[in-house]
Structures are given as structure tokens and as C-alpha cells.
Amino acid sequence: MAEEGSLLTSSPNKSSSTSILSEISNVSTRAFVLAFIVGSCGALAFGCIIGYSAPTQSSIMKDLNLSIADYSLFGSILTVGLILGALICGKLTDLVGRVYTIWITNILFIIGWFVIAFAKGIWMLDLGRLLQGISIGISAYLGPVYITEIAPRNLRGSASSMAQLFAGVGISVFYALGTAVSWRNLAILGSIPSLMSLPLLFFIPESPRWLAKVGREKEVEAVLLSLRGAEADVSDEAAEILDYTKHVKEEQVVDGRGFFKLFQRKYAFSLTIGVVLIALPQLGGLNGYSFYTDTIFTSTGVSSDVGFISTSVVQMFAGILGAVLVDVSGRRSLLLVSQGGMFLGCFATAISFFLQKNHWWETGTPILALISVVVYFGSYGLGMGAIPWIIASEIYPVDVKGAAGTVCNLVSSISSWLVAYSFNFLLQWSST
């Protein structure tokens, strides 16, 4: 069912934050390092976009005279773009390749940021946010897939997790910067990761698995040599990729069902795992916390500056810890701990609102609210942020990977939109 191994476990690997980087360095060439940086910049851009709306909510609403409904639309229209991006991500990456798709996503990121930065009204804000959403909808699945396909087998989990860590870094940095930088300047700063990526894209290789899939077999070994080093023996890896791709093509000729091949019984378990894992944090309120953190803090009496900086620091360290542990403890254990922590954080936030509404323990309520939000984001950074996408990039064979990416992205995007649009209204109706 899956070409990369078991669903929720990985082989143990000696790992610490320095040893992960050391191992990547030991097997890396310039091409691999540049590709890893590009993947990391894409995740960083993603994090900046997610973290942008929370600290800027009050200033944008004041400057452009927006209502709660206007700002809820601005926050949630990102997920409408996610849905549009999810619908095309699989087909686009299979059609034009991984690298050209990265070009497209970075250009959309840049345009979106500058439209927001120079917005004069709600329609420009929404347009910029929509373009960013389309780009995220494509890149959220593309990034882990590309890094998984170019990384050595023993480093796929660590490399993907390290790259996804930068999404948490982007959120944390924008939470902190949002306390000191105006929303227009913050939007311009958000374009920096994509602007950095563009010149690097001239020097990174295409995925060897995609090359094999589109019939460019002669380039597979050359690309592997550029990724592993001129002295490396890549004959076995190249043969494995070519043999597997040939087998998949033969099955496609016999089957002939295209996109709908994914819905065969033999893929039912892996499809369920991928869809549920990716939808779970979204349905658990992630975009509500991410987009409207400022509202949660101010509603419970927490200083926004203290809240955003505390959340930034904890989420960043939790992401680093998750990257260290992903190949040591395995995917499944980290997911269980991470999801349990998100539940506790969410439940404690509800308790803080309940205590405040009834005027109980008024001095301690802000502290409980701050701790609950920190626990929620820290737990998310530990595992649920990166691992579901890593698993989704590992458990599907190449012939259905594009279709699986589309389905996973679509479910995630719809879940995100439901939460992002309704959260502010639900908070007004009953904060608890």
C-alpha cells in the first residue's frame, strides 16, 4: 500500500537538534542544501501568513473601519483559497513538476503580501488573502512531498520535520513582530521568505521520482548524484525508483481509473489515516486560535504583548523538540502526546472563560488563559503541526500521491474554513 514503510512508525535514529543538522550536512550536497532551504522558506512563508492576522486584528479593523463580520471574512477567506489550491495541487504538481509549482506558489505569496500591504479597503485585503490561501493550498502538501522525495530514506522524517519547523518559526516571529510593527510593514516583511526563495529555485533539482514518472528516466541517476554527491553509489536507489515507477505505470494501464483509483478498497485505510490526521487539528480549533489569538487574550484580560511573545517562544521550542523526537519516538507517540496537549489547552481556555463570566478567581483567570493558549500552541508545534503532512507524504504510492494530496488538502481546507469563519461569532455567542 505504501512505498515508504509503515503508517505511524519510523525506525529509531540517533537524533538531537545538532545531530539532525549534522546528519543532513554529512549526506548533503549543495543541491540538497539549497532544496532543503527552499522547502524551509516555503514553510516559513506559510507560518508568516498564518501568524499575520492574530496580532494585527485590532489595528486593521481600526484603520480600515472594519466590522467583526468584515474581519471574519478576511480571516476565513484564506481557507477559501486553501480549498481552491487543494483542488488543483495534485494535478498541478504532477503536470508541471515540483520545482515549477514552487515557482508558482512563491509568486502568489509575494503578490498576496503586497496587495495586503497597500490595501485601501476590505476587497484588497480579501484579494491578497485569497491569493495567499491558494498558494498555501498548493504548497502545504507539495513541500513535504518534495523534501521526502529528495531526502535519503533514513533522514526523510527528520528533514521534513525540520523544514516544517519553520512554519512554527514563521508564526512565532509574526506573533512577536506584530506587537511592534504596523500591519502594512508586517505584510511587506512577510514577502521576504518568498523573495529569498526565487533566486535559489534556479539551482535546485527536480524530484527524481517525478522525473521517473514522466518518462525522463535518464535524468534520474544524474539528479540523485547531484543530491547525494558525485562519489555516492546511487545505482540501487535509482533502480528502485525506476522499477517502482514502471510497476505503477503497468498497474495504471490495467486499471485506467485515474483520480478515482485512490478510492479503491486497498487504499481505504491509508486514505482514512491521512484525511483524519490532517483534519483533526483544524477541527480542534487551530485557525480559531491562530487567527483570533488577540481576541482570546484581550477577552480574558491577558496583555497581548506578553501573550504573543510567550506563545512565540514556547511554540518555537516545541517545534524544535518535535523535530528532534520525530525519528526517535516515532510518529504515533508524538501525535498522541501532541493531540492530548491540544485538548488540555483548549479545555483550560474554556474553563478560564467560564471563571471570568462568573467572576470567580478573577486574579488567576488571565494566568490560566495565558497558560492554556501556550499549552495549546506548544502541543501543536510538538507534533500535530508537521507530522500529519509527513505521514501523508509517506503512506501513498506515487501513482495516487497527487490525488491523495488533493483530497487531504481539500478536507483540511474545508475544516479550516468552518472554524475560521465561525470562531469570532461563536466567541461572541458563548466564549466558554
From TrEMBL:
Membrane disposition: Multi-pass membrane protein
One GO location term (cellular component): plasma membrane
Coiled coil: none
Keywords: Cell membrane, Membrane, Sugar transport, Transmembrane, Transmembrane helix, Transport
TM regions (residue ranges): 31-52, 72-90, 102-123, 129-147, 159-177, 183-204, 267-286, 306-326, 333-355, 367-391, 403-423
Location (main, coarse): membrane
Domain of life: Eukaryota
SUPFAM superfamilies with a match to the protein in the record: MFS general substrate transporter
Domain Major facilitator superfamily (MFS) profile: 31-432
Keyword Transmembrane: yes
GO molecular function terms noted in the UniProt entry: sugar transmembrane transporter activity
Compartments (UniProt record): Cell membrane
Family the UniProt entry places it in: Belongs to the major facilitator superfamily. Sugar transporter (TC 2.A.1.1) family.
Protein name in UniProt: Major facilitator superfamily (MFS) profile domain-containing protein
Species: Arabis alpina (Alpine rock-cress)
